[in-house]
């Protein structure tokens, strides 16, 4: 075991961090998509 395995900076579960990252990224792209759909909807009128 090397020195970095003995002195861990964060003992949090990696799944939680990756899940939060996925949700944030998905929310960002969903927001962009919704804005584009709204602009397209009102632009055709």
TrEMBL record:
User: Which chain regions cross the lipid bilayer?
Assistant: 20-42
- Mind listing the UniProt keywords for this protein, alphabetically? Membrane, Transmembrane, Transmembrane helix
**Top-level taxon of the source organism:** Bacteria
Pfam families given in the database record = YqzM
Q: Which InterPro entries match?
A: YqzM (IPR025416)
Protein known as: YqzM family protein
Per the UniProt entry, what species is this protein from, by scientific name? Evansella alkalicola
State the organism's lineage: Bacteria, Bacillati, Bacillota, Bacilli, Bacillales
């Amino acid at each position: 075991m090397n020195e970095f395995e003995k002195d861990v900076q964060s003992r949090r579960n990696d799944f939680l961090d990756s899940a939060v990252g996925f949700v944030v990224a998905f929310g960002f792209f969903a927001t962009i998509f919704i804005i584009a759909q709204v602009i397209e909807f009102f632009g055709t009128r």
